[in-house]
Amino acid sequence: MSVDLKSTVFLPKTDFPMKAGLPDLEPKLLERWARIGLFDRLRETSKGREKFILHDGPPYANGNLHIGHALNKILKDVITRSQQMLGKDADYVPGWDCHGLPIEWKIEEKYREAGKDKDEIDIVTFREECRQFAAKWIAIQKEEFQRLGVVGDWDHPYTTMTNHAESVIVAELGKFLMDGSLYKGAKPVLWSVVEKTALAEAEVEYHDHTSVTIWVKFPVVTASHPALEGAKVVIWTTTPWTMPGNRAVAYGAEFDYVVVEVASSDSPLAVVGEKLVVCADLAEQVAKDAKCVFTTLATLKGAELAGTIAHHPLKFHPDAKGGYDFAVPLLAGSFVTTDTGTGFVHIAPGHGEDDWHLGKEHDIAIPDTVQPDGKYFPHVAIFAGMEVLNQGKNGKYYSPVAKPVIEAMTACGNLLAHGKVEHSYPHSWRSKAPLIFRNTPQWFISMESTGLRAKALDAIAATRFVPDQGRNRIGSMIENRPDWCVSRQRAWGVPIAVFVEKASGQPLRDQAVVDRIVEAFKAEGSDAWFTSKPERFLGQGRKPEDYDQVFDILDVWFDSGCTHAFVLEGEEWPRLSWPASLYLEGSDQHRGWFHSSLLESCGTRGRAPYDAVLTHGFVLDEQGRKMSKSLGNVVSPQEVVGAQGADILRLWVVGSDYSDDLRIGPEILKTQVDIYRRLRNTLRYLLGALEGFSDAEALPVDQMPELERWVLHRLQELDGQVRAACDGFAFHGLFTELHNFCAVDLSAFYFDIRKDALYCDKADSIRRRAARTVFNLLLDTLCKWLAPFLSFTAEEAWLARHPSETGSVHLEQFPEIPAAWRDDALAAKWARIREVRRVVTGALEVERVAKRIGSSLQAAPLLIVSSDIHCLLDGLDMSEICITSGMVVIDGMPKPEDFSLADVPGVSVAPHPAQGEKCQRCWKVLHEVGTASHPGTCHRCSDAVDAHQHA
């Protein structure tokens, strides 16, 4: 009776689909992880292991996630999962930043649209609205983060607005209060006239802005050198609105200055015969800007200007009324440059950091000129009530007072020229409006009084930075930063819970008061500061009328800088540990969260709250452009996940060099889909080939053919790369290796060779058993290696191989690959064998293109090799390796007509068609077909059919 030969072939069988269907599959796996309590089980099984704590930098709870959020959270998840599978207890508590301007601004917008003033609303009511707004977005973002496959304590995340968090934040502030480093002072800070508050550097963006420029003449009153008599010192500024705040002029002591006379002029502002003083290197450019010609009268060194006094250019304006009747000294300033301008800098101590320091150094009073809303105070002569900044009809911001300043200077004869310049200028990241430097009373933490700067610099030296250049970046910021301004004139946040003694003007430093405030916040939250009477905190023996209660709000960066205190040390997550193993955020956080956390921790604990800091770049479109709705190039993570699956986004993250900016777009995602498909097909092929495999079939390594032992060697090599990549938090190189391993080493080489043995050998043949044993090792290893990265697909493949109600690949650890599997000599040998195979494959491809053969099994070529290669191939079946029906290997010299490759010397191929009949089971063309007991088969296949029938 005839046999159905197809039924005797061991074709791959698996329910693991070729098409992933990730958008449908992934939510089911998320439900499964929740059902089996994956996170809690990980914590239980990890007890006693070395801890790895990646402390989550809190995203802001005010909108849907963007692609940058996806990059950040996926990378955190990949690192946490990989550390867990390295055998550590890698706990992860996600968190949110809830206080601050962005949320408050949204609530204010609602009131503005209703025609209401926020200040008319009860502050506790307003704060509750902010709290509810944050809570709404936390719930939305939580779902979006989990959809990306991020495993963490989602049932108990941290937020900066809980009673516990707020009580710890105010307790941390109390430490700075008690050690004397918290103080109140008046300094120029970056100020938003739109939001009416100070802003931290991390809340500032730099955009191009067009400013009016003016060249102003300061008449000399007292000359330090005879050449200066009757002269006017010329300054240049891009901020005309700061001129009412001028109190001095700075020069560079080492520069050369010239006293010039206007010889001729094409401008009514440059008066012929007028004596001016400018920097020698800039005189030619100043003359050009002023449309005049200078004649040099004298040259002086900057140091010779010391002692010169001018008067304010507006002193004799008819509307000045004594408002500018004060001396304007010339002072040496180390910050003066000769890049642009005149070599003189007008000093407005209330409107600049350098100006303020120079003014303080020379005991110059710091004037208040601009109110919180950006209008001049009523006492400012000439310009009272005018706006320094406003938004034009075209949507662009400008300085309305620039024109009146120009007109006033012109009326006094002290304007030399004016123009416009486009330059990079600080803007609010929320309102997008330009900022001003404005002198305001604020609360500061000193960088010097308790050695905070030195402690922070020491901590940076002791911290691991990935990449290492992050160390220099944050280090230079700490070296040069001013005292930390921690106060904001807002409503939503943790208040600066401090009392100031009216008599002395000093903050009340009493630990008992701090403790009472902390306890109140722990019980009721920071609203207690607004709802309680002062005596609740001041205690017995103090009269409330003797103290001013401070109602400024803490800088939100102080909040997030304290997260290490209430998360890693807090009573709510006792399983965590301090300091964190790793902080991980975008590179902008060197001036943000890394920075504020460093200062807060060094100020209260003397060291950084982290052992290592990793930074990633920003996400750009495929052309390297910033994403924006107007360009239509925004890639939404929700859309990618909905259309292609979270694993595609995860693959993009780990396949990118995130130490630099990353790019994403349709074509890049298409490439990721192609890579994913090859990885998935590898898993699918392994699953199919392992159908019915059990441990009883496994073959010991020492009985395996060389080819299988070479695969095990590759696993041992890759194991070192996997572990090194996880330790170094650098995955893109690893994924190139893993992809090449699956696509080239396995699919195009090993699987290709072993298909014949897997399908057509007897079930118990050594070759087949060896291959299936290795396939089983490959599948388990690849599932575990891929688990931190392609978390959904690895789980799907694992469960297809190990069906279980409660099991998960994420409960496993990376496999321990025996060191004995490494065999460098064997690897070198098979590298050369693969080169020989490449020559044969090339020769057969020529035959196929010429249509002399169809498949490679229709060939039986002659392989001519040099003596050393002939020895190398001894004992190997090259027809099996090259997938031909036969092959003769001879030691000899190639003929000119033979096929060869220039980069593989000593190897040539003479193609010949295989002779005989085609086996109807294995498709090899052999003379023996037709002589076996089963018609149409070769001897091997006939034996396999017999074995199958008797199985």
From TrEMBL:
<feature type="binding site">
    <location>
        <position position="922"/>
    </location>
    <ligand>
        <name>Zn(2+)</name>
    </ligand>
</feature>
<dbReference type="GO" id="GO:0000049">
    <property type="term" value="F:tRNA binding"/>
</dbReference>
<feature type="binding site">
    <location>
        <position position="919"/>
    </location>
    <ligand>
        <name>Zn(2+)</name>
    </ligand>
</feature>
<dbReference type="InterPro" id="IPR002300">
    <property type="entry name" value="aa-tRNA-synth_Ia"/>
</dbReference>
<dbReference type="InterPro" id="IPR013155">
    <property type="entry name" value="M/V/L/I-tRNA-synth_anticd-bd"/>
</dbReference>
<dbReference type="InterPro" id="IPR001412">
    <property type="entry name" value="aa-tRNA-synth_I_CS"/>
</dbReference>
<dbReference type="InterPro" id="IPR002301">
    <property type="entry name" value="Ile-tRNA-ligase"/>
</dbReference>
<feature type="binding site">
    <location>
        <position position="938"/>
    </location>
    <ligand>
        <name>Zn(2+)</name>
    </ligand>
</feature>
<dbReference type="InterPro" id="IPR009008">
    <property type="entry name" value="Val/Leu/Ile-tRNA-synth_edit"/>
</dbReference>
<comment type="similarity">
    <text>Belongs to the class-I aminoacyl-tRNA synthetase family. IleS type 1 subfamily.</text>
</comment>
<dbReference type="GO" id="GO:0002161">
    <property type="term" value="F:aminoacyl-tRNA deacylase activity"/>
</dbReference>
<feature type="domain" description="Methionyl/Valyl/Leucyl/Isoleucyl-tRNA synthetase anticodon-binding">
    <location>
        <begin position="708"/>
        <end position="858"/>
    </location>
</feature>
<feature type="binding site">
    <location>
        <position position="585"/>
    </location>
    <ligand>
        <name>L-isoleucyl-5'-AMP</name>
    </ligand>
</feature>
<dbReference type="Pfam" id="PF00133">
    <property type="entry name" value="tRNA-synt_1"/>
</dbReference>
<keyword id="KW-0067">ATP-binding</keyword>
<dbReference type="GO" id="GO:0005829">
    <property type="term" value="C:cytosol"/>
</dbReference>
<dbReference type="GO" id="GO:0008270">
    <property type="term" value="F:zinc ion binding"/>
</dbReference>
<dbReference type="Pfam" id="PF08264">
    <property type="entry name" value="Anticodon_1"/>
</dbReference>
<feature type="binding site">
    <location>
        <position position="941"/>
    </location>
    <ligand>
        <name>Zn(2+)</name>
    </ligand>
</feature>
<protein>
    <recommendedName>
        <fullName>Isoleucine--tRNA ligase</fullName>
        <ecNumber>6.1.1.5</ecNumber>
    </recommendedName>
</protein>
<dbReference type="GO" id="GO:0005524">
    <property type="term" value="F:ATP binding"/>
</dbReference>
<comment type="function">
    <text>Catalyzes the attachment of isoleucine to tRNA(Ile). As IleRS can inadvertently accommodate and process structurally similar amino acids such as valine, to avoid such errors it has two additional distinct tRNA(Ile)-dependent editing activities. One activity is designated as 'pretransfer' editing and involves the hydrolysis of activated Val-AMP. The other activity is designated 'posttransfer' editing and involves deacylation of mischarged Val-tRNA(Ile).</text>
</comment>
<keyword id="KW-0436">Ligase</keyword>
<dbReference type="InterPro" id="IPR023585">
    <property type="entry name" value="Ile-tRNA-ligase_type1"/>
</dbReference>
<dbReference type="InterPro" id="IPR033708">
    <property type="entry name" value="Anticodon_Ile_BEm"/>
</dbReference>
<comment type="subunit">
    <text>Monomer.</text>
</comment>
<feature type="short sequence motif" description="'HIGH' region">
    <location>
        <begin position="59"/>
        <end position="69"/>
    </location>
</feature>
<feature type="short sequence motif" description="'KMSKS' region">
    <location>
        <begin position="626"/>
        <end position="630"/>
    </location>
</feature>
<feature type="binding site">
    <location>
        <position position="629"/>
    </location>
    <ligand>
        <name>ATP</name>
    </ligand>
</feature>
<dbReference type="InterPro" id="IPR014729">
    <property type="entry name" value="Rossmann-like_a/b/a_fold"/>
</dbReference>
<keyword id="KW-0963">Cytoplasm</keyword>
<keyword id="KW-0648">Protein biosynthesis</keyword>
<keyword id="KW-0547">Nucleotide-binding</keyword>
<dbReference type="GO" id="GO:0004822">
    <property type="term" value="F:isoleucine-tRNA ligase activity"/>
</dbReference>
<feature type="domain" description="Aminoacyl-tRNA synthetase class Ia">
    <location>
        <begin position="29"/>
        <end position="664"/>
    </location>
</feature>
<keyword id="KW-0030">Aminoacyl-tRNA synthetase</keyword>
<dbReference type="InterPro" id="IPR009080">
    <property type="entry name" value="tRNAsynth_Ia_anticodon-bd"/>
</dbReference>
<keyword id="KW-0479">Metal-binding</keyword>
<dbReference type="InterPro" id="IPR050081">
    <property type="entry name" value="Ile-tRNA_ligase"/>
</dbReference>
<keyword id="KW-0862">Zinc</keyword>
<dbReference type="GO" id="GO:0006428">
    <property type="term" value="P:isoleucyl-tRNA aminoacylation"/>
</dbReference>
